[in-house]
Structures are given as C-alpha cells and as structure tokens.
Design a protein that fits this description.
Structural class of chain B: mainly alpha
Shape of chain B: globular
Number of strands of chain A: 25
Radius of gyration of chain A: 36 Å
Oligomer: heterodimer
Largest sheet of chain A: 13 strands, mixed
Distance between the termini of chain B: 23 Å
Shape of chain A: globular
Strand content of chain A: 15-25%
C-alpha cells in the first residue's frame, strides 16, 4: 500500500521532467525508488529508509528541473519516444532557451536583479500574509457541513431599537412547534462554571448548555462516545456532559477511558458521555457542553437568554427563512402582547454572525495591500524602462539578425516573469514570516484566528499575484523596447536616451505611485488620529491601579432561593468576608463588588418611572441594571454628581434604593432633579438617591447608555467581580487576593483576574491592529513611491546631461540647476498629491466605519500628508539635483 | 595508446557519475536499479534515481550504452525495466577515462601528492 503511494508520488514528481523523458523513464524511475525504499527498509531500518526516500524524491524533483534546461536536441528519449507536434516542441525549446538566457542576463546584473526581486517580494509577501488572513477568516467556508444553510435566529425589539437579542425559552419552543422553513433548530446559553474532577485543582472554564439538537444541527458528532439524547434534554434528565477535544487533552490527558467518568460543574455532578473531534468549535473556547434541560416553570417569556441556531431545509432560501420567522414572531406578539410587544425576528447567516464584524476592516486592509503591490509593479516597470533603454542596442542587433517582434517581447517578458517568480518565492517566505507577526499582533477576538495559515489557496493566490505582477511590470517596457527603430538605435551609438514617449510613461507611473501612496498614508493617518482620539476618551472611571477578579459561588453551598430573594445569607456572608479581607490588604486602598465591571456592558431589563406614562407591565423601555456594593463609585473613581452613594444601611430589608447615571437622568428627568423620584423594576418601587457620572461600559468608542445602579445587598448575585484600587503595582495584589479567597473557600476558582489597564488595551486591540497594519502598508507604499520618484528624476538627470552642460556653459548657476531638478520632482509630487487627494475623497466612504471622532475627509490629515509627501519627494530628489549641479559642461558636451 | 584514441578524446573527461555507470556495466548488462546497487556496493556512494536516469539518457544519446533488446534480456521482475549494456564506443571511452585518471594518479605520485602506498 505504501509502495503504491510512493510510486504515485514518484510519478507525480516525474512531471517535472520534459515529456519525452518522462514517457521513457517514468516507470523505471518510480520502480527504482520503490525498490530502494523496500531494500532500505529491510536492511537499514525505517528511519534511514525514510530519510533516503526523501532524498530520492528531492533528487528526482531537482533532476526534472535541471533536465528541462538541458540543450533541447540532446535527448535520447526524444529519438525513442513518439514525437510531439513539431510546433509545440519548438515552443518549449524556445521557452527553455528564453529562461536560460533570462537567468544569465539577471545573474550578470545582480544589483538590478536584487532590487527588483526585493521590491516584488515586499509586495507579494505583504499580499500573501494579508490574503492568508482574509482567506482564513472570511473566504474559507465555516467548518460545518453545508455551512451556508446555517443561520442564527435572534429577536429584535422595535421600541428599544435593537436588532439582535436572544430568544426566551417559551419563544424557542414555539419556533420549534410552528416553523416550516428549517430542517432543525437548536438553542444554547453560555455559563462559566467551576470545574472540579477530584484530580486536579478546581478550574474555571467556559461551558454551554445546549439543546440535544445542537450537534446534529451543526452536522458534527462526538469522536468518542455520543452526543445528547432527547430524553436527557428535559428537567430532571440525566446530568451528562460532552467535552471539547482541547479540554479532554489538557485536563484528561487524552484518555479514552474518560467516558463514564464524572466531573463536577459548580459542584453538580455530570457523567462524561462524549468528546468532540479536534476541529469542532461553535462558541469560542467552550470546554464542556451539557444539556439545556429547559424548565418552562421557572423561565419567563420575557427573559431573552437563549441563542438560537437553525439549519434551513434543502432548497429553502435565506429570505424564506426570514419570512417564516417574521410570521412566527408576529403570531407570538399577538398571542403574548405583554411579553412580546414590539418583538420581531432577525435571521443572519452564521457566517455573518461570526465574521461580519471584521469583514469591512479586513477587506479595507486587503485593498490597501493590493495598492502596495501596484506601487511595487510601477517601481519595477520603471526600473525595466531604464534598463530597456540601456539594452536598446542589444535588442536592435537581435532584431537585425532576424528575431521577430514576438520573439523579443517574449524574451523580455520571460525575463520579467523570471524576476517576478524569484521575487514571489522570496515573497512567500516573507509572507510566511509576516503571518507569524500578524498573528502575534492580531486581536485575540479576531474570529477564526486558528484557521489562518498558508494553505494551498494562499499559495495559489501568491502564484497568481506573482504572475500578474510579472506581466504587469514587464509588458509595457517589453513593448516599448521593440518600438525602437533599428537604425536609430544603432546610429545613436548606444547613448541611453529614453525618448519622449517612454519618458511620459515613466512620469505617469511615478505620479501614480505618489497618488496611491497618498491614499494609503492618508488611511493610516486617519486610523492613527482615531486611535489617538480613543485614548483621549474619558472612560468615566480611573483605570490606573485598578484590578478585578471574578468569582462564581456554586449554588450548592451558596443557595439563592428566588422565593426568598433578596435573602441569600450565605452569599451575603461571602460578600462581607471578601470585602473585609480585601480592605485589610496593605496595598489596597478601596475595594468593592459589582455584577458587571465598568468595562462590561451588562444587560437590560424593563423599567418604569413612577408617575410616567406607562407601568412596567405596559411599558417597553429597557435599561441597564448594574448591581454594585457600597463604596463602588469611590473604588472605581466615578464621580457622584448629586445625592448620595450607597451606604451600609441600604441592606436587603431596608427601603429599596438606586443610583442612576447621568444619561438616565437626562433621558427621564430632563427638567428636574431625579433625587427622591422613584422607578420600578423586578416588582419593586425604588427610590433614586443619587446621580453619578456616565461610564463608557459599552466600549470606549460608544457613549454611555442610561443605567441604574442598585445595591448588591438588595440585588444579590452569586457571580460577580471583585474590584480593587491598589496603591502599588497591581500584579502582586491579584496573587494575594487569590489566596485570601482561597482561605474563605478553597473550592472556589478565581478567574479573569486582570488590571483595567490591560482590559482597556485589549478592548482597543482591533483598532490598534487596523492602525498598525494600515501604517505598515502606508510606510511600505511611501518608501516604494519615494524610490520611484527618485528613479525617474535621477534617470531624467542622467539623460539630460547634455542639456545641463549647455545650460552651464550659457551661464546657468549650480543653484539654478538644482532648482530646476527639484522643481521637476516637486511638480510630479504635486500632481500625484492632487490625484491622490481626489482618490482619497472618492474612497473615504470605505474607511469611514472604522474611524472614531475623525471625519473620513479630515482636512488636517489630508493637508499634513500632502506636505509630508511633498517633503519626501524633495528629499528623494536631493541626490539627483546635486548630481545635476555637478555636471561638467566639457564632458557633457563632448558627446556631440 | 587508447588514451590518444581520437574517437574517445572528445568525450573526456567523464563526470564521476557517468564513469561509475560505465564501470558498473563493464562486466555485465544491468538494469538501472542494478547499476545503482553495484555502484553503491563498490564505492559506498548511492546514485539517486533522478541522477541515474538523467545520466543514462545522456549515455544513450552519446552512444556509450545501449538497451539490451527484449530477446536477449534476462528475465526481469516486473517488465517495467530496461537493461543496458556498454557499446564498443562506451567501452573505449571508459578505458580512455581510466587511463586518463591513471596518468593523473601517476603525476600525483611523482609530485609527491600521494605516497605510493596510499594508492
């Protein structure tokens, strides 16, 4: 079996050989390699045999390439084999000859070749790296069978103007009962349990409760064991769990005997029944799946905590799926006006849900990097023009001894393609390195990060980019070279002069380079400005020396009896203990608890203002509820604008109170003080005792939403953040705090410990990534364009020696010549900048969505970049200008 | 002296690979894999298949070796192989190359590059 595979590979590789050679020796080659392998295996052992096999195959490949360069008439195989059509043969022979000639020519001018290869390599490398991201994240189908059929079903709320909220359990079961467009549907909700298995330390992980239909809907099944059964998916069903491949390996050492073992999630015992295959991922980082076991008696129709995914039936279009869900939601709104008023459906392709958010930025960057390649092409084309002028005589002589135009063009194109391929190979290597850099700087929340790699399609892309590049930069110079009249070229005695036409093309190319570079530098300038603006935003709290640790108290030992709520003595005892221990730490100045840290958007619930137009039952307004402990505002550094903070007296049995943020005050109490007014949610009227400043908990780039803070004593939750203000470096404090929590309850896992400094930095990672990438491409474009304008001006100077000589002899000063050259360069730059300006304005729409507090047509950026490019152009022209001013009239005029 | 054989001089010097193949075929016809085994057994150096068959193609072109026709061919394992033997020209070329090398070896001894017992 293995030998037949080796034979197949050998046959495949023998395609590197010219056809006749292959026809004659293919069988013998593969037989010899197979026999060697078998003999080696018997006499020398497996390792040597395989090493030798690799050497044999490499030798076979290299031999094939070399054989193609062998003088064409020297093949025995040709005599023996059936002769291919004569025309084709001569074409291949000529091509081989062309390539040999091209290689010789290029080796003879190593400096020129190196510059071209490097330029192409930079362009192709940057494109390869960027394309591998676009390919891995956007283009490749999601890793589910028939992934295009998968859709995410969310609910919209036309009163609060939201498009994508979760579904409630009762709604989900109504979808199932009445839908007509979907083959199957599944629901999930995430949670972060503490995992303990009695073997290793308790650990916090991401888990999901899913309906039994989730794996079949996605088209995956466990690689070991089984998925969930329908009977396990009801309240009181068996407590079973399916592990992710990653968790199975890290926690259970990849032991297949894990099936049947038990694990504890939040101190509830589950039996492991399956392990998913390695490539399976649905929600990021989920380690354990358990059945949803949805209980209709405890979940209300108003609680939208389920994600829903569905697979469209065969032949049902997305639009039909949308129509079906819209119909269902309209029925539900009529049937349950209280809970479902205003609620509609949003159906997105799964692909959109996963990668929709990053697509605009990635496409923009892909566009930018393509422009870089264009500039690189223009640069190389200019270099080839220069060389083409110098080779006029050679080409004229070749034409004189009978080479046809087609033959010469082809020769020149083969040369440029050879250069491009060399550049492409170096470029792919650079791209490979580039991907590692990109992956290192890519934001961790970039979806499908683990699917980014150099794949066959990336290589194909690189190959096409290379070939197109080679033709793009080679075709104009090649055609130009053949336009020369034989007699002119020979009569000129080989003096290198470009001719008016060539000069114009070269000038146009230089102007185009400047224009494109302008667009890219403006793009990076805008992203830089917008990043700067983001870092200048006041988040509404002081993030320096502020850390958070998250804990979740298991319901087994910290029960939250919802009938007795807000009485939860165990939970509140833990609150008190942890706060007391935290404030005792020497390097902690303030400590507080919060359901949601100031960087976390939290969730909304329906509220009503006392005396307002509607009661909670009729109302449709949803706002954010943020339970916090007393001392929270002081700890995070959010200023109290009016009234008072929560105090120790605001206990569970005290009158319910809330503090609102400025945004909520402005929305509901535009003309009066909200103090002592009352608002209602979760069944109780609560008195407003204070107003605090807005915090950008939705993200730095988003304004704060209206929010209600309530004391955790009155709204206790068992999962929460501990927030500490430190007086020293926060790192050691986290460690100390962990051990303090361990002393209260050693079975608790503390997770998500982080400083707010790093949390804010992470939240800006996507913007930083865009900025760095665009900056890199802009810098690359600028460098190439500077080299381009230098090349054109410098070449212009070298062909105008004669003219400068005349000028000097007629009395022109050195400064005057310098001004002449610099002026020419600046003129090109100006035209380029003006063209670039209009291009930048025309494409501003594309980048607008990525900007923050900066308009896409920002005069400061446009003007600054314009001046910057002008200066760069002048610098690029300094050397040629200096050379022009050194012209010796005697030498310059001697040529006549 | 065959070294001055005008028919063979244009073929010299031979590349080491080509010379080794000719030596391998000097005593009997062999197929490609047989040549490979013989050379490896004798010199400890392995010719790889790609190198071997490119050299064989050249030797056929130059007329130094020829294919043994089917009727005289020894039984072969799978019918995929051809067997090669030296031509008269090939034998003369090999002899010339050996003499050329012998002369070089002699010169090396005379110039004390090699002690006699070393070679």
């Amino acid at each position: 079996m293995l030998t037949s595979r080796i034979t197949r590979i050998a046959r495949l590789l023998s395609r590197f050989y010219p056809g006749p050679f292959r026809d004659r020796y293919e069988d013998e080659l593969s037989a010899t390699i197979t026999d060697t392998y078998i003999d080696d295996l018997n006499t020398r052992g497996s390792v040597t045999a395989h090493v030798e096999l690799v050497i044999q195959l490499a030798n076979l490949t290299v031999g094939g390439v070399l054989e193609r360069f062998r003088p064409a008439n020297a093949h025995a195989s040709r005599v023996h084999s059936t002769t291919p059509p004569a025309r084709r043969k001569s074409l291949i022979m000529n091509l081989a000859q062309d390539i040999r000639f091209a290689l010789r020519t290029l080796v003879k001018q190593p400096g020129f070749s190196l510059v071209v290869i490097l330029t192409v390599a930079l362009g192709v490398g940057a494109n390869t790296a960027m394309f591998s991201i676009v390919n891995g994240v956007i283009l490749r189908a999601l890793p589910y069978p028939n992934a295009h059929e998968l859709v995410v079903v969310s609910q919209s709320d036309r009163f609060n103007n939201t498009q994508r909220e979760g579904s409630s359990g009762p709604d989900y079961f109504d979808y199932l009962a009445t839908q007509r467009a979907f083959e199957s549907m599944a629901a999930w909700t995430g949670f972060n349990p503490t995992l303990s298995d009695g073997v290793k330390d308790p650990d916090r992980l991401t888990a999901a409760q899913v309906t039994h239909s989730l794996f079949p809907t996605l088209g995956w099944s466990p690689s070991i064991g089984r998925g969930f059964l329908e009977e396990e998916d009801h309240p009181g069903g068996a407590m079973v769990a399916v592990l992710s491949h990653g968790l199975w390996e890290s926690r259970f050492g990849g032991d297949e005997g894990v099936i049947g073992r038990t694990i504890e999630l939040n101190e509830v015992t589950y039996e492991v029944v399956g392990v998913m295959p390695p490539g399976f991922q649905f929600l990021p980082n989920v380690g354990v799946w358990v059945p949803l076991q949805y209980d209709e008696t405890t979940t209300s129709r108003g609680q939208h905590n389920l994600g829903v995914i569905a697979r469209l039936s065969d032949g049902v279009a997305l639009e039909a799926g949308r129509a079906d869900m819209t119909r269902i939601m309209a029925d539900l709104e009529r049937a349950y006006p209280n809970d479902n008023i205003g609620r509609g459906a949003t159906v997105d392709p799964l692909e959109f849900t996963i990668t929709g958010g990053v697509q605009p930025a990635l496409w923009l960057l892909m566009g930018a990097v393509t422009l870089v390649l264009l500039i690189a092409c223009a640069n190389v084309a200019n270099l080839l023009f220069t060389r083409g002028s110098a080779r006029k005589r050679e080409i004229a002589v070749r034409a004189a001894i009978g080479a046809g135009t087609g033959r010469i063009v082809r020769q020149l194109l083969v040369e440029s393609l050879t250069l491009a391929i060399a550049g492409g190979i170096v470029g792919v290597a650079m791209g490979y390195a580039g991907i590692r850099i990109l992956l290192a700087i890519a934001p961790a929340n970039l979806p499908r990060l683990n699917e980014i790699a150099i794949s066959p399609s990336v290589l194909l892309f690189a190959f096409i980019a290379t070939a197109v590049t080679g033709i793009a930069f080679g075709i104009l110079p090649a055609l130009q070279a053949t336009k020369t009249k034989l007699t002119d070229a020979l009569a000129e005695g080989g003096r290198t002069s470009g001719g008016v036409r060539t000069g114009r093309i070269r000038t146009t190319l230089a102007v185009a380079q400047i224009a494109i570079a302008f667009v890219l530098v403006v793009g990076s300038g805008l992203l830089l400005r917008s990043m700067w603006q983001l870092t200048q935003v006041d988040p509404g709290f002081r993030h320096e020396n502020l850390v958070r640790l998250t804990v979740g108290l298991p319901a087994t030992r910290y029960p939250s009896d919802f009938t007795a709520w807000p009485d939860a003595p165990e939970v509140k005892a833990f609150y008190a203990d942890v706060l007391e221990r935290a404030t005792r730490l020497p390097s902690v100045s303030h400590a507080a608890l919060a359901l949601n840290a100031p960087t976390n958007p939290g969730w909304t619930t329906r509220i009503a203002i006392e005396g307002g137009a509607m009661t909670v039952e009729e109302g449709v307004e949803e706002e954010r509820i943020r339970p916090v402990s007393a001392g929270y505002f002081k700890t995070v550094g959010t200023s109290l604008l009016e009234g008072r903070d929560f105090g120790p007296l605001d206990r569970g049995d005290a009158p319910p109170v809330v503090v609102i943020n400025n945004a909520l005050a402005r929305k509901y109490f535009p003309a009066e003080s909200p103090l002592n007014k009352r608002l209602q949610f979760w069944g109780l009227m609560r008195t407003i005792i204070g107003v605090v400043d807005d915090v950008r908990f939705m993200g730095l780039s988003q304004l704060s939403r209206p929010a209600v803070y309530a004391p955790m004593q009155q709204l206790p939750f068992s999962g929460f953040d501990i927030i500490l203000r430190t007086t020293t470096d926060p790192g050691p404090v986290i460690t100390t705090m962990r051990s303090e929590i361990g002393q209260i309850d050693p079975a608790l896992a503390v997770f998500d410990a982080a400083s707010f400094e790093s949390l804010l930095a992470t939240s800006l990672a996507p913007q930083r990534f865009n900025m760095v990438m665009m900056g890199l491409f802009g810098a690359l474009a600028l460098t190439l364009a500077a080299v381009g304008i230098y090349g054109v001006i410098s070449y212009g100077v070298s062909t105008r020696q004669h003219e400068f000589g005349v000028r000097v002899s007629l009395g022109a000063g050195r400064a005057e010549l310098q001004r002449l050259v610099l002026g020419h360069g600046l003129k090109l730059a100006l035209i380029g900048i003006i063209v670039g300006l209009s291009m930048a304005v025309a494409t501003s729409r594309l980048i607008a969505g990525l900007l923050f507090n900066v308009g896409p047509i920002d005069p400061l950026t446009l003007g600054g970049v314009g001046i910057f490019l002008g200066v760069v152009a002048i610098i690029a022209c300094l050397v040629p200008a200096w050379r022009a001013s050194r012209v010796d009239p005697i030498i310059a005029l001697r040529q006549d | 002296m065959p070294y001055d054989d005008p028919d063979t001089r244009m073929h010299l010097p031979l590349t080491p690979v080509v010379f080794e193949i000719l030596i391998a075929l000097a005593d009997q016809p062999r197929h490609g894999y047989g040549v490979m085994q013989e050379v490896e057994a004798r010199t400890g150096t392995r010719l790889r298949a790609g190198t071997l068959y490119r050299a064989i193609d050249r030797l056929l072109t130059e007329g130094h070796i020829e294919e043994v026709t089917a009727t005289t061919q020894p039984a072969n394992r799978d019918g995929r192989r051809r067997t090669y033997r030296l031509t008269k020209l090939g034998r003369r070329v090999a002899v010339s190359e050996a003499q050329r090398l012998a002369a070089a070896l002699h010169a090396a001894r005379v110039k004390k590059l090699l002690q006699p017992e070393q070679a």
